[in-house]
Amino acid sequence: MVQGHPKCWRLCASCKKGCRCLKCGFCHSCAYPVGTICISEHSCDAYTEEVKNHKSEKKKLKAEKVDFEEKRKEYQLNATALHFKNYALEVKNNELELEKHNLKLRNDDLEAEKENLGLEKRALELRNRELESIRLRTYTDGLLIRKFLGLIDSKTVSVLVGPERKRFTIHIDIICLASGYFKDYFSTRAKDTEIETIILDTEVDNVDTFGMFVEHCYLGTYFTDSKDDSSMSHHLLLHARLYALAEKLQCPPLKNLALERATNWCYGHNMQLGGGNFSDIYPNILDAIRVIYTYTTDLNSGLRPYSTAEYGSGYRLSEFGIVDADDWEDDLEVVRDGFRILIARLAAAYLVDLRETDAFVELHHAFPDFNTDMLLFINDRPVVTAVEERKSSLVPTISPSTSQAGVQQEETVQLRRKNILEFSSLFNTETFTIFVGEDLKRFDVHIAALKCSDYFQKLTTSNMKEAKEKTVHLNSEVDSAEAFDMFVQYCYFQDYFHDEIRINVLTLALHASTYLLADRLGCIGLKELALQKANMLCDSAYANERARYKTFSAVSIAVAMIYGNTYDMHGGKISKTKGINCYNAADTTDPSDEGKGDESTTTTKEKVLEKDRDGFRVLLARFASAYLSELREFHESFIAKHHAFPDFATDVMLLATAGEKIELDEDGRPKA
Length: 672
Description:
Elements: H1 45-151, E1 156-161, E2 166-171, H2 172-178, H3 180-187, E3 198-200, H4 207-219, H5 235-248, H6 252-268, H7 284-295, E4 306-307, E5 315-318, E6 321-324, E7 333-334, H8 338-349, H9 351-354, H10 358-366, H11 368-375, H12 386-392, H13 404-416, H14 420-424, E8 431-436, E9 441-446, H15 454-460, H16 465-469, E10 471-474, H17 481-493, H18 507-521, H19 524-543, H20 545-565, H21 601-610, H22 615-626, H23 628-634, H24 636-644, H25 646-655
Parallel strand pairs: 1-3, 8-10
Antiparallel strand pairs: 1-2, 4-7, 5-6, 8-9
Helix pairs in contact: 2-3, 2-4, 4-5, 5-6, 5-7, 6-8, 7-8, 8-11, 10-25, 11-24, 11-25, 17-18, 18-19, 18-20, 19-20, 19-22, 20-22, 20-24, 22-25
């Protein structure tokens, strides 16, 4: 029996080793009192209860252990089943992978077999074509021989060609049949008249090309492999010269053949998409351009070649886009010289390399028809936000605005800030009467206000008749009443405001007119202000579509004004820092960041070159090059101004993006 549990209520307070007996009331572990004997055994009730609870807990734990063992065995069975299931899936997956691999091998075998069949088919087609070609050549050669035999009994004529006067003796009937030029020449002479020697000694009358013309007269074709002249080794130039000669000699079949072969060379050989090299065309393309645009004519220069068939029978193109054909009287068809279009496309595709050469820039400037044709195929330059443009711009600009309304508001605020006392002092002097333009609009301006102009400052202090009478007439090309109105505003307020209700002139055109008048009158402040406002207007057009289309209408007018009345060092290139990220994409340094002295050499060089350029010219070229596709499609006047002002055309070309290289379609013609 166990006694002395600390929690027992009968625990002996003296020894704390036993419990007081229930019978005698004394602890049996201590000494018994005298005369008291108790031999009954007893135990601690608290301990007994604890033992009882312990046994109950132990029994409970044993039951839980049995339950856990049963669950563990069940889990092991499930795990074993899952393992076998995964194994079965892996086996199935391996079987599927093997089957997939076998199918792939089978597919590869089928593809190889298909490719072999395709090769065999192409070989058979090629052989069939060769046989057909041989048959046709045999038939054609028979016709040519019969034709040849029927013509060689005619009289002959000697033709002296080129500066060296190389002689060609040709049967008259043959060249008259092939050439309208010779047919007209001999038709004016009597049959019994002695035939004189014919001399052809212009630049287009090249000995080699005339020899190929003779080949075409007798054989219906011409050959290029046998030509040994190094100057004619380049096929593009050779075909171009032959094309020009065929136009002069009025031989359409030879023209078509030369154009076809030039096209095949350009886009079917070296110049295929992604496979052309600049060295394949340069410098011979320059001579080809010069020959074609000097010795061919095209009444539709600057227009895309198209017909109503391109848009269906019910539509056609106009200055304003595609419109219903019912609105037109006749069917539209624009026929262009094929070689001009071909060579303009080729130059546009290699624009980036070509414009780096001075010879091409000079040639582009010298042939307006060529630069206008090439305009059809070059792409817009990238446009960035006005803020980014302003960071790298070399032309100072004032605060930007997002719409024309914003421009007007900003100008009004500037006028309110003027010093009233300074303004009032201008009225202490007499007025000077100025008649402007053909309508002789009168302006009476205080002499003190005119001091901002070098022209009027010298005029008012001179001994000239105008100074004595205080009257002058301004009637030159740039003296418009609208621009002079802006000049008067600047004289009094050092600023000007365009009220479109009062002055019916497009805003950009007014800034251009004011810029020119300020230059003529020697008013540098007004000239810079007009340029700043024009820059601000273009910034607004970049950001706002409505403002942009409004500005489009004024571009052609502004181009005619600025490029017709300003001059600059055109040899200097326009930098692309405004509107184009010209730094190397692999370099993380942006030349537009302020405070960085290690800008790229290219950017620095471009800025040096641009310092002699007229600011308004640069502005117009940049804006136009950003929206070439829209301007050339929907604004016919833009094409006309581009053609009329070669300086503008060259400036736009230096900024534009190169055109796409072109592949041939199934008919052997360049894809649109």
